[in-house]
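Quick check before the chapter quiz. The format below is the same one you will see on the exam, so make sure you can read both the input and the output lines.
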Amino acid sequence: MIQWEQLTVNPMYNPEEIQTNKEELRQAVLHARPFKPLYVKFKVFYGCNLKCEMCNHWRETREPPVPAERFKEVITELAELGTKKVHLSGGEPMLRPQIPDFVEHASALGIKVTMTTNGTLIDKAKAKRLAEGGLRGVNISIDSPIRKMHEKIRGVEGSFKATTKAVELFRRYKHKGKLTVRINTVVSRTNYQTLETLPDLAHGLGADGINLIPVDDHCGEILSMRKKDIALFNAEIAPRIAERALSLGLIVSDEDAFPFGRSESEVRLGRAGRYALGYYDERPCYASWTHSLIDFNGNVYVCCMTRERIPPLGNIRKQSFKEIWESAAYRHIRLKMHPPALAACRRCDDFIEQNKNIWETIGPY
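Here is the expected output.
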């Protein structure tokens, strides 16, 4: 049996935290009270230096992000509330020069720090400072093992070389047990037929794992996977990815190579963008008790899927995080997380394995 901590190279929560406090969490769920924001994601910057075909961050201009000092103050607040992990993302987070400062500050408070980046702005000095400052996991986006395909998707010539170089730079710190490196790959109609050798590229670069992400439905008909595309991917490409990635230790289950599902019913749900594959029709999502998303502009949401789908629960420019975490707005969302959960939850597979284990740990209610 796969243990919880094996489910991902960078688990969202430490299972011991849930096990130790299972009765406290159970009562919080029963009464829609706050538990602990164990895992918090910061979208620290909206813009991006690449022009990815499946993304709007480079197409739009938004207001300036929350000042660096306020972000650091919030990290201190989170440590006091029991946060164990912070994840930094964007846009492209490395467009903010203060990222190493955020990493060092959170790490000094005992918080594990991870980050998602396209890697193109990483050089030797930055990789060294981030690793030595406490960065413990980095997800680097590579959309094909073929250079021309990756750069077609990312929209910038030379990006493949810069990104793969970043993986190699971070790899230097793996042997010290400091840093885990994963490759994120968005699977779309554009690239799916080129992904068979992705495990070999990841292994050759020294990565610890690969993460296949189904293209979002908002990307439109040009990128979305049709029924015939999924059928071809599942029949000919995913099995080869699974076999090779398993042999190299890059995934923990062959299911990880099938982001759109395997059975007819799963594929039907996946094509509709319901990547939870029906899980939340019968089970709750515990994210509102254990997780939060802080956007670049200070708005706070339960998670990425609720961002821009429901009003923000508060804003750290105007309130402490504690005020928001304990607010009536957050309580209102917690009351709606019981099955069937929010409509947005049905489109998300980020927390399913963790939610399954929490369900088994605290029991039905």
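If your answer matched, good. The first helix runs from residue 15 to 20.
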